């Protein structure tokens, strides 16, 4: 009886490790992140770049409003071995042009995506009306493709907003002048 009970307990402890499934993530040529649990569905040209995700590594949210977790902001490199005065104009290990370029590029991409998103949402409404009137397969495919594009844009916008807020936090910790953050 004790042996059977011990065997069942051992089986219950080992079984979940076999049931754990893996997910695969890859980014296509247009910058869209894809997730799947079947590695055979990954296109051949992206298989080398596909990353295997375990359930314990990263949680994948569900739903249209769900967004991925923001990566932690990079830690500034300590500059203790530098003589005083050698770090003039350097904040958080970076100079003024780096900070300005980083903020400008992130905000520029965010503005472009937000403008494109509004255009795509307008086109989606037109496609939905057309689908209701004609009810053809190609109209249905166009609506689905536009919904996918809008969804990926929304995810990228959320990611850029998180990157900007992380950069703002890093800049605040490094005491970067506000003029450099524009």
Textual characterization of the structure:
- With 182 residues, this protein is mainly alpha-helical.
- Strand 4 (90-91) and strand 5 (94-95) form a beta hairpin.
- Strands 2-1-3 form a 3-stranded antiparallel sheet, with no helix packed on it. The protein has a two-stranded antiparallel ribbon with strand order 4-5.
- Among the domains are: 22-56, no CATH class; 95-181, Up-down Bundle (Methane Monooxygenase Hydroxylase, Chain G, domain 1), CATH 1.20.58.
- It contains 3 helices and 5 strands; from the N terminus they run H-E-E-E-E-E-H-H.
Strand content: 5-15%
Series of H and E elements: HEEEEEHH
CATH topology assignment of the domain at 95-181 = Methane Monooxygenase Hydroxylase, Chain G, domain 1
Poorly predicted ranges: 56-60, 79-86
User: Architecture of the domain at 95-181 in CATH?
Assistant: Up-down Bundle
Structural features:
5 strands; Methane Monooxygenase Hydroxylase, Chain G, domain 1; 3 helices; three-stranded antiparallel sheet; mainly alpha; flat
Quick recap:
With about 180 residues, this protein is mainly alpha-helical. The protein is built from 3 helices and 5 strands.
Topology record:
Elements: H1 2-19, E1 22-27, E2 33-36, E3 51-54, E4 90-91, E5 94-95, H2 96-134, H3 137-173
Antiparallel strand pairs: 1-2, 1-3, 4-5
């Amino acid at each position: 009886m004790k042996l059977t009970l011990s065997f069942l307990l051992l089986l219950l402890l080992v079984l979940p490790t076999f049931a754990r499934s893996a997910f695969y993530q890859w980014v296509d040529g247009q910058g869209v992140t894809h997730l799947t649990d079947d590695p055979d569905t990954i296109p051949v040209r992206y298989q080398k770049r596909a990353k295997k995700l375990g359930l314990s590594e990263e949680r994948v949210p569900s739903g249209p409003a769900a967004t991925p977790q923001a990566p932690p902001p990079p830690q500034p490199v300590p500059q203790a071995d530098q003589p005083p005065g050698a770090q003039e104009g350097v904040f958080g290990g970076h100079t003024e042009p780096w900070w300005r370029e980083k903020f400008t590029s992130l905000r520029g991409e965010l503005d472009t995506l937000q403008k494109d998103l509004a255009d795509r949402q307008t086109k989606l409404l037109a496609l939905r009306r057309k689908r209701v009137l004609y009810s053809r397969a190609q109209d249905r495919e166009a609506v689905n493709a536009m919904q996918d594009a809008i969804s990926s844009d929304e995810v990228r916008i959320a990611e850029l907003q998180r990157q900007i807020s992380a950069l703002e936090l890093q800049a605040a910790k490094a005491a970067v002048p506000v003029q450099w953050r524009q």
